[in-house]
Design goal:
By secondary structure, this protein is mostly helical. The chain is built from 15 helices and two strands. Strands 1-2 form a two-stranded antiparallel sheet. Helix 4 packs antiparallel against helix 5. 54% of the residues are buried.
Length: 342
């Protein structure tokens, strides 16, 4: 397997501090090259022009984080001053809406607003100060903060929290914490030696229960191929049994923010996360294919991100729309394939 610690040590170094300021949190190479025609752009433009609910970080079902991210990228691409003002008004209202949030709700919602602030060049001092502090804001009903959640939860809670931590780190040019988050991500992807501070539940879906990871390496158990399974979310369908692996929606829920984190780290030239642990995220996609578990609903961003990361056809069809959590419209923002060799 690729050595995560070697990659992290070589790539996430002092030079990254200079590079971060020039990179975008979400849209590749900035918005200037994105198309302004076609169905994908038309959908993004419609989202940007729509009326949005008031932002509320504590409500994990509030979709404004996704809308404002798409809207901000449209504004950056078109130079629409009125739309930029609309985005800025939303960003001014988001502070404080994290009160009473679980780490999952805050982790799911935060990065969409970070994406928006980055896309339109919103550098309000109060927003930056708040963003630095909200990573450690007290959360309820589980982990004490999204920072703690990212470090301890190997399921969908942790992947959402860590993706938002990475987005905030990129926006704030926080190289030190970005290094921490990338190392934990390498551990989650399968490099147990890089990081293994996660708290796992039932480990029966793990290839090696003594060394649990976020995505199983190639292995079989009682004749069942576990290569690419997300064990700590798969366990929500019940303990391991022989036969077909049951569809468990939480595996898709955990997978999307992991893809998002890999895209952000790759775009920032921080670490080629898609290559780690024998291309763990691609192996997970291939496991979904073996299960015939297609991405639907607000998981339809996933196939576009898989193709962008790996330059090959994903397990699920590239649908007419691309909807996700926090980041949507990847058919527009990441419609071209990166396909970095591993």
């Amino acid at each position: 397997m690729t050595s995560a610690r070697k990659l992290a040590g070589l790539v996430i170094g002092a030079a990254l501090a200079v590079a971060l300021g020039a990179c975008s949190v979400w849209q590749p190479q900035g918005a200037a090259t994105l198309p302004t025609s076609g169905a994908a752009y038309a959908h993004a433009l419609a989202v940007a022009k729509a009326s949005w609910p008031a932002p509320k970080l504590s409500d994990m079902n509030n979709q404004t984080d996704s809308y404002v991210c798409t809207g901000a990228i449209v504004a950056a691409r078109t130079g629409d001053a009125a739309l930029k003002s609309k985005i800025a008004a939303v960003l001014a209202k988001v502070r404080g809406t994290e009160s009473g949030a679980t780490a999952l709700a805050l982790g799911r919602n935060l990065r969409g607003y970070v994406c928006a602030a980055d896309a339109i060049g919103y550098s309000d001092a109060a927003f930056r100060s708040w963003l630095g502090k909200v990573r450690d804001a007290k959360t309820t009903g589980g982990p004490s903060s999204i920072r703690s959640c990212a470090a301890t939860r190997p399921n969908n809670w942790g992947t959402h929290c860590r993706a938002s931590m990475v987005a905030a780190d990129l926006y704030l040019d926080d190289v030190d914490d970005l290094r921490v988050q990338a190392t934990m991500f390498a551990g989650w992807l399968g490099d147990y030696g890089a990081y293994h501070g996660f708290q796992y539940g039932d480990t029966s879906w793990q290839c090696d229960p003594a060394h649990p990871v976020g995505i199983d390496p190639p292995c079989t158990k009682s004749g069942v191929n576990l290569d690419g399974v997300l064990p700590d979310d798969q366990r929500r369908a019940g303990s391991f049994t022989k036969g077909a692996i049951p569809h468990e929606n939480y595996t898709r829920e955990a997978y999307e923010p992991a893809l998002q984190e890999a895209v952000m780290l790759s775009q920032a030239h921080a670490i080629d996360a898609q290559c780690l642990s024998d291309r763990a995220l691609l192996r997970a996609d291939q496991e979904f294919a073996r299960m015939r578990f297609a991405a639907t609903g607000d998981d339809t961003n996933e196939p576009w991100l898989v193709r962008w990361l790996y330059g090959q056809s994903p397990s699920s069809p590239l649908g007419a729309t691309a909807i996700g959590k926090s980041y949507s419209d990847a058919d527009w923002t990441h419609g071209s394939s990166s396909g970095k060799p591993c």
